Amino acid sequence: MGRHTLAEEPVPHPLDPPKRQQGRSETTGSHRIVAAKAPRRRIAKWPIACAGLVVLVALGVFGWNWADSVLNNRAEAQAASCGGNRSTLRLVVTPQVAKPVEAAAKRWDADLTPEHGACFQVDVTTKSSSEVLDALVGKTDLSTIGGLPDGWIPESSYWVTQLTNAKPERIGSPAMPIGSGPPADYPFVGLAGASISGTSTDENQQRATQSFRAYLKEPAQLADFAAAGIRAS
């Protein structure tokens, strides 16, 4: 019988690289199981928008009240600074508008509102348009109408045209109708020039006259004109 010789496994040389073992991976590691991400929940935007709107409204109201308070305090401080030193703003008006203009003058005086650093009270004189025109153009003396007024309200633009043609230097500011009631339009014209005392209408008076003219166009005054049968123009 033949003799079987077992193959001897060669002895590894010390300098040979180590053998890899079969059935094992070169690298070892752990496998991470990644779970499927859950869908994100959407947050409704309208509550955020509503909250932002409420904040904006609140800030607006606060800002408005603050600004109004500052303006009121400033106006009161300016009014207090007038003390008893107030210049007179003289107006001559046709009888048809005397009542509403006098009511407006009382409100103006009660407000004690300075105009361009000066304080004015309004004095209203009632004269016929023909009488005022004669005094302004020099046919009669200015003393017949109490001196040169700062403003004039005749019943019609006809009288302003006559003054412009005869003595244009008397016109301090263009006429502005403050109402209508056929056939009248009640123009308010600012006047300029030397008074019977020789003094001229200064810039502050002219500005105050224009401010009072604008004041006549405010709702409270327009209501008085309407009560007198004069419509807003």
How are the SSEs placed, and which strands pair?
Elements lengths: L45 H37 L4 E7 L4 H14 L8 E7 L2 H9 L13 E3 L3 H10 L4 E7 L9 E5 L11 H13 L3 H9 L6
Parallel strand pairs: 1-2, 1-3
Antiparallel strand pairs: 3-5, 4-5
Helix pairs in contact: 2-6, 3-4
Question: Explain this structure to me?
Answer:
With 233 residues, this protein is an alpha/beta fold. 39% of the residues lie in helices and 12% in strands. The chain is elongated, with a radius of gyration of 46 Å. The N terminus is likely disordered.
Features:
233 residues, alpha/beta, five-stranded mixed beta sheet, disordered N terminus, Extracellular solute-binding protein, transmembrane helix
Q: Helix segment count?
A: 6
Which secondary-structure class do the elements indicate? Answer: alpha/beta
* Mean pLDDT metric: 77
Major sheet characteristics: 5 strands, mixed
Q: Order of strands across the biggest sheet?
A: 2-1-3-5-4
- Overall body shape: elongated
Number of strands: 5
Q: What order do the helices and strands follow?
A: HEHEHEHEEHH
Report how far the terminal alpha carbons are from each other: 144 Å
- β-sheet strand percentage: 5-15%
Low-confidence stretches: 1-7, 23-31, 70-79
Determine Rg (CA atoms, Å): 46 Å
Helix content: 25-40%
Region (Disordered): 1-34
Organism: Amycolatopsis rhabdoformis
Biased composition (Basic and acidic residues): 1-19
Transmembrane segments: 46-67
